[in-house]
Amino acid sequence: MNNPLWRLFSGTVRGINQAMAYLSAFLILVCSLVLVYEVVTRYILNISNDWVIELSIFMLIAATFLAAAHTQRERGHVGIEILDEVMSKRASRIRLLFGDILSMLFCGLVAYLSAVYCHEAWDQGWTTSSTWGPKLWIPYFFMSFGMLLLTLQFIVQIVEGLMGKAPELPKHGHATTTSGQGG
Prior knowledge:
By secondary structure, the chain is mainly alpha-helical. The chain has one domain (4-162). The chain has five helices and no strands. The protein has helices spanning 4-43, 52-73, 81-86, 89-124, 137-162. α1 packs antiparallel against α5 (137-162), α2 (52-73) runs parallel beside α5 (137-162) and α4 packs antiparallel against α5 (137-162). The longest helix has 40 residues, at 4-43.
């Protein structure tokens, strides 16, 4: 599409999603280090930390939802691959477009509902029941923001599909057997 506003919008969505993918990778790395710290302090130093598991859960929630839009851009989510083998490319593209529209509606709804929960958690001061008691608006924020990014990614894919830029079909690998030959 040659519209400069569209290029700005889709490029911005693409850039934000790429940045969130890097942030997600960083969060997973930090989460891994925090869990190693927990193992060392618990089993070597005999010290228990009540914050480690909840912090790890919060980081993994953030990483999961922030990376979802980038994964969608790469068509990396689970799909029904057998249909791509039996359908024509045109039919597969129509199926992908229909799936993108339904997914956009679902993700938009989840983004909205988790934003409502985030607002309630913020207003009412919701915390977890642990002794550390972190604020529950934090995971709800990442859920809502990640689903908003995913919704925007679906919008980009839908518009590009409708404007003639064929959606890229998923890239499927081939399974190998234990003998090492393709299956």
